[in-house]
Amino acid sequence: MKQITAIIKPFKLDEVRESLAEVNVTGLTVTEVKGFGRQKGHTELYRGAEYVVDFLPKVKVEVVVDDSVVETAVDAIIKAARTGKIGDGKIFVQNIEQVIRIRTGETGPDAV
Ligand SMILES: Nc1ncnc2c1ncn2[C@@H]1O[C@H](COP(=O)(O)OP(=O)(O)OP(=O)(O)O)[C@@H](O)[C@H]1O
Predict the structure, then answer these.
(1) What is the pLDDT of residue 108?
(2) What is the ipTM of this complex?
(3) Which residue, by CA, sits nearest to atom 1 of ligand 1?
(4) Which pairs count as long-range contacts for 53-59, CB under 8 Å and 24+ apart, including other chains?
(5) Does domain 2-111 have CATH number 3.30.390.50?
(6) CB-based contact 81:25 (threshold 8 Å)
(7) Would you kindly state one Gene Ontology biological process term found in this protein's UniProt entry (predicted)?
(8) Pocket of ligand 1 (CB under 6 A)
(9) Residue 5 · residue 58 · CB < 8 Å
(10) Whose C-alpha lies nearest to ligand 1, atom 2?
């Protein structure tokens, strides 16, 4: 199993959620975060206002999936989150040791 962490533009959240649902991702976690990438000194538009790149509001989407689904899920996120402008975000993929579904006691890929 892998955890896909995507840092995206906040206004892209709905599209990313829909795009992941289309490839049968059944759960995800969303957190409002702030951050910056490589484009320091450039400006980025956020809700019509131009920010000098400092800490910009972003949304972090975390989704844990079976290894066989990683590529499809990553593609779905990219398709939905990409504008082609700076600050589109980044995707990190990490190994997940174990998943336990609390209600049923299922573990591993059955639990995601
Ligand atoms: N190396 C990193 N480690 C942790 N978080 C990062 C890293 N790079 C980017 N992020 C997070 O991802 C967000 C979006 O990154 P951003 O798209 O600005 O990266 P970039 O490298 O500048 O890409 P771009 O060329 O598209 O602007 C940042 O605001 C930050 O929260």
Answers:
(1) 95
(2) 0.88
(3) 37
(4) 53/87, 56/87, 57/10, 57/32, 57/33, 58/7, 58/8, 58/9, 58/10, 58/32, 58/33, 58/34, 58/89, 59/7, 59/8, 59/9, 59/10, 59/12, 59/13, 59/30, 59/31, 59/32, 59/33
(5) no
(6) no
(7) regulation of nitrogen utilization
(8) 7, 33, 35-39, 56, 58, 86-90
(9) no
(10) 37
